[in-house]
Structure formats: C-alpha cells, structure tokens
Design brief:
Structural class: mainly beta
Largest sheet: 7 strands, mixed
Radius of gyration: 13 Å
Number of helices: 0
Number of strands: 11
Strand content: over 45%
Length: 115
C-alpha cells in the first residue's frame, strides 16, 4: 500500500505546477483522494478532494479558482494542477487516500514559490 507524490519544485510567483500522486496496493477507484499541505511551523491543512463517483470536487477557499484536482482511475493517479501560485502556497504537499476502513498518506513533495 503506497502513495508516491511527485512534481514539486521551485516556481516563481504567478507560475504553475502539476503534482502527481501514484497509488499502488489498493483499489484506487474505491477511495476518496485528497491533497493536503503543511507549511513550516503550521499544521497540515486541507487543499482539495475528489471523492470519485463523479461528484463535485471540494476545495479550500484559499485555492478556489487557482487549483484543480482530478484523478485517472485507469492510471491509479490523482493530480493537483496549481496555477497563479503565491509565496504563501509554499509547503510540503501530501496525498491522502481515504475509505471507510483505511487512511493512507504519502511522504509529500516540496513546493516552493519564490522569486
């Protein structure tokens, strides 16, 4: 059972990144997939979620209109498309898979927004 995030890096303010989270070892399509982030000295916070089943994704207010979450069940992968990035978006971004019986976290990928 594993989640592996990738796609983080250094980007200038106003730039874009696409994060990926590859899942293995469980039935991906049966899990709600989410992204969280944790900035230095702060608690981990919710960013976006796709519960699957065709429902409307959910977003934290501070990313609405800038970030988009989508999943590819055929590839067992969930993505986070991040646009108009701000310095305050700097954080480690974590992927989460959740079901009635399980809660799985990845190790995270660092996103740094700086000029």
């Amino acid at each position: 059972v594993q989640l592996v995030e990738s796609g983080g890096g250094l980007v200038q303010p106003g730039g874009s990144l696409r994060l990926s989270c590859a899942a293995s070892g469980f039935t991906f399509s049966s899990y709600a997939m989410s992204w969280y982030r944790q900035a230095p000295g702060k608690e981990r916070e919710f960013v976006a979620a796709d519960t699957g089943g065709g429902g409307t994704p959910d977003y934290a207010d501070f990313v609405k209109g800038r970030f988009t979450i989508n999943r590819d069940n055929a590839k067992n992968t969930v993505y986070l498309h991040m646009n108009s990035l701000k310095p305050e978006d700097t954080a480690v971004y974590y992927c989460n898979a959740n079901s009635w019986v399980d809660n799985i976290w990845g190790r995270g990928t660092q996103v740094t927004v700086s000029s």
